[in-house]
Design brief:
Length: 308
């Protein structure tokens, strides 16, 4: 799947991913009103609103972008209807030929990790039938439990030609409480980055590994170091836009070939219509506001890469 991700990035000339992380507060009132009129103010009504919101954003942006990243927590909070909305979103994005990065941040050991890997990336056997339950193309994984937690995912990636983005240096302010701790004189995130590069050797695509890393846009200097430590690993870069990252900060996440990184923006795109800059579109045209925000993000990152 890394080969398809790179192909999509080359085709769109847009190394970005749209985070489909819907909150009810992001959804325009007319979308919620229509959903509640049909399903009531219920979990099902909330999830219908989420689905219609996602669909409009995808319809307005899919031709500009290579990938999407739905954050499963935003769906799980609504229980089983939320998981159904998550699955509908995954399937619809794949119909649009988008690569889907399931932001699930799973991390466990043994049979539990194997079950997570099968459910999100692989297949489960039911009698004589085999099913791909959620069927994302990539998922995010927390490596805190070590190789016992990651290897089951790597095994499924080898079998299914799918991929991982392993948390290395996250964008949140308190990430340094653990990730920056020195071990034998080196920060922990560097040691995790070396392990990611090692895991990736068993899952190589044409030029890059199926095993990538998550490194926050809010730590560009650390991104520069990690880029050298993981030369064949794609880096998923959260923290653009709403969290403060901008194109000029991100050039060191990329290799000289202009590849090697994909930058995520979530609420900066899906809730763009709420920003003063895109307010002219109004609630009714929230999808057009998201498209304009995508175009601006692409221009920002392209310009930074061209001028580095």
């Amino acid at each position: 799947m890394i080969n398809k991700l790179i192909l999509n990035i080359k085709k769109t000339k847009a190394p970005i991913v749209v985070g489909l992380d819907p909150m009810l507060s992001y959804i325009p009132e007319h979308i919620k009103a229509e959903a509640f009129a049909e399903f009531g103010e219920t979990l099902e009504g909330a999830c219908e609103a989420i689905w219609q919101f996602n669909k409009e954003i995808v319809d307005k942006t899919y031709d500009l972008i290579p990938a999407v990243k739905p954050q499963i927590a935003m769906y799980e909070q609504f229980g089983l209807p939320g998981l159904m909305a998550f699955k509908k979103t995954v399937d619809y994005c794949k119909e649009k030929d988008l690569v889907v990065i399931g932001d699930v941040k799973r991390g466990d050991i043994g049979s539990t990790s194997s079950a997570y890997a099968a459910g999100h990336l692989g297949r489960v056997q039911v009698g004589s039938q085999s099913y791909a339950p959620f069927d994302e193309d990539f998922v995010t994984v927390n490596p805190y439990l070590g190789s016992d937690g990651v290897n089951p995912f790597v095994k499924v990636c080898e079998e299914e030609k799918k991929g991982l983005f392993i948390l290395v240096k996250t964008s949140n302010p308190s990430s340094g409480e653990f990730q920056d701790r020195l071990i034998d004189g080196r920060p922990l995130y560097e040691l995790v980055g070396e392990k990611v590069a090692e895991w990736g050797l068993s899952c190589m695509g044409e030029d890059y590994s199926y095993i990538g890393a998550v490194v926050g846009a809010t730590y560009p200097a650390m991104g520069k170091v990690l880029r050298k430590i993981m030369p064949k690993s794609y880096i998923l870069v959260p923290g653009y836009g709403a969290q403060g990252g901008k194109g000029a900060d991100l050039v060191h996440f990329f290799n000289e070939d202009g590849l090697g990184a994909i930058v995520n923006s979530s609420r900066g795109i899906i809730a763009a219509y709420k920003q003063e800059k895109y307010g002219k579109f109004g609630d009714e045209n929230f999808g057009e506001a998201s498209r304009a925000a995508v175009e601006d993000m692409i221009a920002d990152i392209r310009g930074a890469l061209e001028n580095r």
